Amino acid sequence: EIIRLSELPSEQIMLEPSLIKDLLRRRQKLAISAPKVSLKTSLAIHLAVSVAYGLNWLGWQCNSSKILYINLNISKQECIVRFNKAIEHLQLDRTSVSNIDILNIEVAQGISNLVDDIIQAMNTQHYRAVVIDSLDNIPAPTCQKENRLVELNRLTSETNSCVIFTESHSHRPIGNDEARAMAEWSDILNYCDSLIELIPLELDPELLRRERLLAVWEFSKNILNTHNKRYYLMNVTDKYPERADSNSEQLFEHLETALISFPEETKIGIFDKFHALDNPIKNRTYWRLETVSNSFPPKEATN
Question: What is the pLDDT of residues 221-232, one digit of tens each?
């Protein structure tokens, strides 16, 4: 088809409207990619909620839109629970929850059949975006890269909507010696317009020390002042968090020493509460989020 640019009305020359400003426009595809068992599903659910409510999501402004969430990854009940937790975590009311519909598919027969099912579901409602979690659960022989690109393009064109999908990948290769692996890793960019990647991150040891100490400080201070104030005044004091060598392990040792004569059952209850505050931070995995875009200028596609 020959298109005469001079004859096109101005509204056809303008860019498609954004679903997520500077990240995703109508008829575009956004991938969320990370190693297995990371944050992909949580990220996808929070993104779906942010779009439904028109929130600012990790620095990108979402336009309030109706979303169809395709759950291929977890049980129906767990999916509902996690959506409710996301809404509570973001301290939202339920007035805009009608913008989110969930389609649970226990077994995906293939990428073509999946797209057929999604198109059929979307024909009954005016959805501006579909979130698919996850392409990992589509049988490999029917989800080859070329076929995937064709089917995802068919989905965006026939529904006039955006597609957001999650997919696992190995850790990003590093160095020139791994050029082939790097090319395979980056192949995901061939069938999406923007890529969000999660990369495991080692937190600065000093920052982690401070986070852990502050998480347990108020609890430990109250216990020591209540049960052994003399020990607290002689060995800890209110200035304890300001010392450069203070840490949660050392504070736990102070608790053990100060409560040494206490009944075992009482000590176990106190120590369990201490660990409940400390362990989630000590064992947390930290991630860096990076974006790569084929369709936005570098100044717009902000990391």
Answer: 999 999 999 999
**Nearest residue to 30 (alpha-carbon basis) of 193, 187, 184:** 193
Kindly report the backbone phi and psi dihedral angles of residue 15, in degrees, each rounded to the nearest multiple of 5, phi listed first: -65, 155
Predicted TM-score of the model (pTM):
0.74
Report the amino acid identity of residue 116.
D
Degrees, nearest 5: CA angle 196-165-80: 110
Assess contact for 79 and 101: CB atoms under 8 A. no
First to last CA, the chain: 38
CA distance 123 to 102: 15
CA angle 135, 283, 271 (to 5 degrees): 140
Between CA 26 and CA 34, with CA 30 as vertex, the angle to 5 degrees is 170
Torsion of CA 110, 115, 121, 122, to 10 degrees: 160
C-beta of residue 240 within 8 angstroms of C-beta of residue 217: yes
For residue range 257-289, list pLDDT tens digits in order. Answer: 999 999 999 999 999 999 999 999 988 888 888
